[in-house]
Design brief:
Number of domains: 2
CATH topology of the largest domain: Ribosomal Protein S5, domain 2
Number of helices: 10
GO molecular function, one term: mevalonate kinase activity
CATH architecture of the largest domain: 2-Layer Sandwich
Radius of gyration: 20 Å
Largest sheet: 5 strands, antiparallel
Helix content: 40-55%
InterPro entries: GHMP_kinase_C_dom, GHMP_kinase_C_sf, GHMP_kinase_N_dom, HddA/FKP, Mev_gal_kin, Ribosomal_Su5_D2-typ_SF, Ribsml_uS5_D2-typ_fold_subgr
Protein name: Mevalonate kinase
Strand content: 15-25%
Distance between the termini: 39 Å
CATH class of the largest domain: Alpha Beta
GO cellular component, one term: cytosol
Pathway: Isoprenoid biosynthesis; isopentenyl diphosphate biosynthesis via mevalonate pathway; isopentenyl diphosphate from (R)-mevalonate: step 1/3
Structural class: alpha+beta
Length: 308
């Protein structure tokens, strides 16, 4: 049996904004991956994974999916009885799509109709996103379906608005001084509570106004500049985005990162932003001079994901 690998994802731009119809840009991240496998379930990891698949299959039985996206749940349950588990090194609670990769792997193996990045139409992509939202909402309470879609398609995806998504090509990474990188906050974050905080904030008119007039404007401008590889407007808008998050997303910024976030803004050596819902996990960093930023962020675990 060939085991297709499903990679993690990184939401480069659009955290929280995509809930409010901003654009988003997300890409696969092959450093972390997962695949469905069979075993005799001898260790705790495999047993735990098998048990959680069993519980998930109970959820899938009662899920009413459109015909062209239906799953062979009986086959899935039979495989679970035979020792199926999800072998993954994707950290949970880190904002890199651990449940998205699992949902993508299950859909790929058990969907009645097969889709590939080459043969899928834009309308099917839109419908698939909705289906993935239903499949992933088991893990988060409410899901946009974006994470599993990225993991499934294994391509960069531009989120145009709440309804529409499209494949996009991003500029090639090249060996330059600049970098986009991940910082490990050293703690896990839970999506549910963070999203709850966001919805509470959205109840106040002032926050709604600044979200629409400032955050979404900076966010969409960053995506536009990044796709055009136009670095000056990118960093100008990144700084605005980072200041905005520092002022308005304080509960979502892990305490361990708070001073480093401010230091980047004060020195302009790098800018930080949330990677996913925040509260822990990874934070994204952008810099025109990675060696300088790296020295200033001494003590943090970092991983470069893109060079320019």
């Amino acid at each position: 049996m060939s085991n297709p690998l499903f990679y993690a994802k990184i939401l480069l731009f659009g955290e929280y904004g995509i809930i409010e119809d901003s654009q988003g840009l997300t890409l696969p991240y092959s450093y972390y991956k997962g695949t469905l496998k069979f075993s005799e379930l001898k260790n705790d990891f495999e047993k735990k994974s098998n048990l959680s698949l069993r519980k998930y299959s109970d959820y899938l039985i009662n899920l009413d999916l459109p015909n062209s996206f239906k799953l062979k749940v009986a086959d899935f349950q039979k495989d679970i009885e035979n020792g199926l588990f999800f072998d993954s090194n994707i950290p949970q609670g880190y904002g890199v799509g651990s449940s998205g990769a699992l949902v993508a792997a299950i859909f790929e193996k058990y969907s009645i109709k097969k889709y590939t990045p080459e043969n899928i139409t834009k309308d099917e992509l839109k419908d698939l996103k909705k289906v993935f939202g239903q499949l992933e909402s088991y893990f988060h309470g409410k899901s946009s379906g974006i994470d599993p879609l990225i993991c499934y398609m294994n391509l960069p995806i531009l989120i145009e608005n709440k309804e529409n998504v499209d494949r996009v090509s991003i500029p090639e990474s090249e060996a330059g001084k600049g970098a986009i990188f991940l910082i490990d906050s050293g703690m896990t974050g839970e999506t549910g509570p963070m999203v709850q905080i966001f919805f509470e904030k959205m109840k106040t008119e002032g926050f709604r106004k600044t979200m629409k007039e400032e955050f979404i404007r900076y966010n969409n401008a960053c995506i536009d500049a990044f796709l055009k590889k136009d670095m000056n407007p990118l960093f100008r808008n990144l700084k605005n985005l980072s200041i905005w998050a520092y002022e308005h997303f304080k509960p979502m910024i892990p305490e361990s990162i708070y001073n480093a976030w401010k230091k980047g803004l004060d020195t302009n050596a790098y800018y930080l932003k949330l990677c996913g819902s925040g509260g822990g996990g990874y934070i994204l960093g952008f810099t025109k001079d990675y060696s300088k930023a790296e020295k200033m962020l001494k003590g943090f675990q970092k991983e470069v994901i893109y060079r320019f």
